[in-house]
């Protein structure tokens, strides 16, 4: 089943928001959308719904796209944010990108909007999956370490004769701190050079 995106559109002119919607529909994107005009409405929308991407005008009365960007990124740093403007200059666009906007679209070139939306949604999914895999890896490593550190038998892991890991028991047996062994030659765990040369560690 094809996924239906949910899009938050921030603009103080309803007709401009409608232009974004028309562009996305013409491209064949299946989506629902919510239109908001001010800071209070942005916060309310972010609390009430989950969005795949945010499209925001840059110039709004009493509010601007940079302020909207700050609110969105504080809520979810990985939320794709696309700035749309008829007046945005290069300096403002670069500033927006530095602050976390993924793209900016000129209203004179709205055909770029739909491809940008699809690309940024896909990129955000990749970023989130990477963060989740890194977190799972760290949790697994922490779990393994919690078992090995207190294990009553000396354990060490070597790669290319360099110590990658050593538990507390082996460090005590050898008379070193764990930190003194990690990153060092496996020679440190052998009683003699002859034994070190004989065993492939």
Can you describe this structure?
By secondary structure, the chain is an alpha/beta fold. The mean pLDDT is 86. The chain has helices spanning 14-26, 39-48, 65-75, 90-98, 113-149, 168-174, 178-181, 193-198; strands at residues 5-10, 31-36, 53-57, 59-60, 63-64, 81-85, 103-106, 156-159, 162-166. A five-stranded parallel beta sheet has the order 2-1-3-6-7, with helices on both faces. A two-stranded antiparallel ribbon has the order 4-5. Strands 8-9 form a two-stranded antiparallel sheet. It has eight helices and nine strands. The protein is elongated. The protein is 48% helix and 19% strand. Helix 2 (39-48) packs parallel to helix 3 (65-75).
Structural class: alpha/beta
Span between termini:
52 Å
The whole-number mean of residue pLDDT values reads 86
Widest sheet: strand order?
A: 2-1-3-6-7
Rg to the nearest angstrom?
27 Å
Largest sheet: 5 strands, parallel
Secondary-structure element sequence?
A: EHEHEEEHEHEHEEHHH
- So how many helices? 8
Strand percentage, roughly? 15-25%
Helix content: 40-55%
Which residues form runs of ≥5 with pLDDT under 50? none
- The number of strands is 9
What is the 3D form?
Answer: elongated
């Amino acid at each position: 089943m094809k996924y239906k995106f949910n899009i938050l559109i921030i603009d103080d002119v309803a007709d401009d928001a409608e232009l974004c919607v028309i562009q996305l529909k013409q491209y064949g994107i299946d989506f629902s959308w919510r239109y908001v005009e001010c800071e209070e409405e942005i916060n309310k929308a972010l609390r009430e719904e989950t969005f795949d991407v945010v499209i925001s005008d840059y110039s709004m009365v009493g509010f601007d796209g940079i302020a909207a960007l700050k609110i969105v990124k504080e809520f979810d740093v990985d939320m794709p944010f696309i700035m749309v403007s008829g007046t945005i200059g290069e300096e403002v666009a670069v500033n927006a990108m530095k602050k976390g906007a993924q793209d900016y679209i000129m209203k004179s070139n709205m055909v770029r909007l739909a491809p940008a939306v699809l690309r940024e949604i896909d990129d955000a999914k990749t970023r989130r999956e990477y963060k989740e895999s890194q977190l799972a890896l760290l949790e697994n490593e922490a779990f393994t370490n919690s078992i090995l550190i207190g294990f009553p038998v000396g354990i060490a892991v070597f790669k290319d004769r360099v110590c990658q890991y050593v538990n507390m028991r082996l460090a005590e047996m050898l008379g070193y701190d764990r930190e003194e062994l990690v990153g060092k030659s496996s020679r440190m765990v052998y009683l003699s050079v002859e034994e070190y040369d004989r065993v492939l560690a």
